[in-house]
From TrEMBL:
Keywords: Hydrolase. It is an enzyme of class 3 (hydrolase). The active site is at 101 (tele-amp-histidine intermediate). It comes from Pseudidiomarina piscicola. This is Purine nucleoside phosphoramidase. A motif (Histidine triad motif) lies at residues 99-103. Gene3D superfamilies: HIT-like.
């Protein structure tokens, strides 16, 4: 998938986002529909549609997203309390924007299982 996504537009500053972190490889910004008091999206600037599209030579880039999550958690003071990192893949996995992104959720005690209200797929 090579179509332009909303994340590409955020990277190019064509639409606004509340950016909390940026470096040469990645960008992190607040989710517009937060599922926790802190809900950030950490994205690579290089477009990769889904986890299924990650190539061997992109493993450092994908690993970098987790390093960014650690940095943000430390800078914002919730690293020791804890946080959740989630990356969805494709429609049944909950992916709605086809540009990989790491959800960072924090600011409250997060229950388990994470999506207890999910319903099994029918059919």
């Amino acid at each position: 998938m090579t179509s332009t996504t909303i994340f590409d537009q955020i990277i190019r500053r064509e639409i606004p986002a509340e950016i909390v972190y940026e470096d040469d490889l990645s960008l992190a910004f607040k989710d517009i529909n937060p599922a926790a008091p802190v809900h950030l999206l950490i994205i690579p600037k290089q477009p990769i549609a889904t986890v299924n599209d990650i190539e061997e030579d992109q493993r450092e880039l994908v690993g970098h997203l987790f390093v960014v999550a650690r940095k943000i958690a430390a800078q914002h003071g919730f690293a020791n309390d804890g946080y959740r990192l989630v990356m969805n893949c494709n429609e049944d996995g909950g992916q709605s924007v086809y540009h990989i992104h790491l959800h960072l959720l924090a600011g409250k005690t997060l229950g388990w299982p994470p999506y207890a209200n999910d319903k099994p797929k029918q059919g």
